[in-house]
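Lab notebook page, bench 4
Experiment: in silico fold of construct C2
Operator: M.H.
Input chain length: 160 residues
Purpose: comparison with the prior construct
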Amino acid sequence: MRRNIYLVCLLSVSVLLSGCSYVTPTIAQEEAVEKVEEHAYDTLAALPEGAELEELSEPSPAPCSDTSLLGAKKRVVVGVNFWIRGVAEEDNEVALDLMHDHWVDSGYRIVNDNRPDDPFINARNEEDNFLVATQYNKNGTLSLTVGSPCLWPDGTPELF
C-alpha cells in the first residue's frame, strides 16, 4: 500500500512538472547573445542611413529577476546597452517614431510608450520574448537596450 502511494505521488509530480514552462529547455546563453545582436541591428535598420550602434557593455548575463519561476536563481537574462550615434538631437522624436513603428510592424508588443512626458519606449517580441527599449537622455543622446527572457545558461533546466 505504501509503495502504491509513493508511486502515485511520484507520477503526480512528474505530470505536474512536465506541463510547466519552468522545466522547458530554453535557448542557451550563447544563442541569446546572438539574438540580442540580431534585435539590435534589426532595430538599427529602421533608422536613417548614418545611424550606428556603439556598444556600451559586452553582452553579459545577469540573474533572472522573475523569482516566481522555479529555479530562478539559476536562470539568467542576457542584455546589452547601446548608444545610437549618427542621429541629430533634433531628430530624436522621429527616431523614436521609426523604432516604435518598426517594432509594431515586426511582431513586437509595445509594453510602455511614455511619450510625450518621458521619451521612453519598450516592447516585447511576441515570438521570442526578447525586450527592446529606447530613450534619449537630457543630453539628447539616444540609447537602445536589448535583453533576453529568463533562460537556463546552457539551455537545460536545472531545478535542484
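Observations: The radius of gyration is 20 Å. The CA atoms of residues 79 and 147 lie 4 Å apart.
Next step: discuss at group meeting.
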